[in-house]
Description:
This protein is an all-alpha fold. Helix content is 80%, strand content 0%.
Amino acid sequence: MGIPDLQIRMFAHLFRQMKKALIQMHLAVLLWGFTGVLGRAIDMTAPVLVWYRMLLTALFMAGILFYRKQWVKIPTKDIRSLALIGILMGLHWVGFYGSIKFANASIALVCLSTASIFTSLLDPLVNKTKHDPIELFIGALALAGVYFIYRFQQLYGLGIVFGVIAAILSSVFTVLNKRMAGKYPSRTMVFYEMGTGWIFITMLMPLQLLYFPDTKVVPTSTDLLWLVVLSLCCTVWAQSLALNALKHISSFTATLSVNLEPVYGILLAFFFYHENKDLDYGFYIGMGLILLSVILQTLRLLKQGTTASGYVEEKGGID
């Protein structure tokens, strides 16, 4: 075999790996985008839905870790940190699904897309560095987008508020997760975060039943099916696909792919629920401003050499 033939074979192998990785990444992002559709399909209140999602995800993760013998011992100090992140993640999901219930999946996803902007604003506060004026401008652009949506979609005002709260909580646990991302395997971190988050939601559940005694607690067979899909496919499988893909594709490709999540989610909501018929021009102006802010922030991160793998690890590969 000549050198040129060997080079051609190696190039073809790398091309196949990159093609497979690109498909895996976009499939993961598509699965994350489905969370909004499933959140609307599951006929349960946001806290109960999150209670089941965190429980099922923790159980699935425990099964994978046990089967593959990947248990990693974590010091008590770091378990406390993971527990805090898990609590914030649980509250974030309650806000996100609350936004879907009080508004719709499209509005919830657009509000959630501001999380990366809030992260860029919060990170300097946590790490005690100076804010970049450009980042402040991008943040103002995203907030202007939220204002447009709120101003012209006041019927969904409470849902928009929940969506923004979910985005802020997402940015907080992303910044906190940044300190833990490189220390332990992502599956181990997700297990502890889901487990502690589930315990916290369980402790709050009596309040839900006290103030809303008619709360539906036992899922129907259809709801249970969607909950399993949400936990197994949109969380466990999507995370695995994303982390595998990040081994073979560039930071630029991965970052842009991850930021397509709200776009995929909104298109899915339009397709399954025809939500576009319930939205006016104010929504599209606001969405345009928010997407512009996300694109500008993405380009800044890529220019600075920030890797998408770190971004996915910091979020725990979950949405």
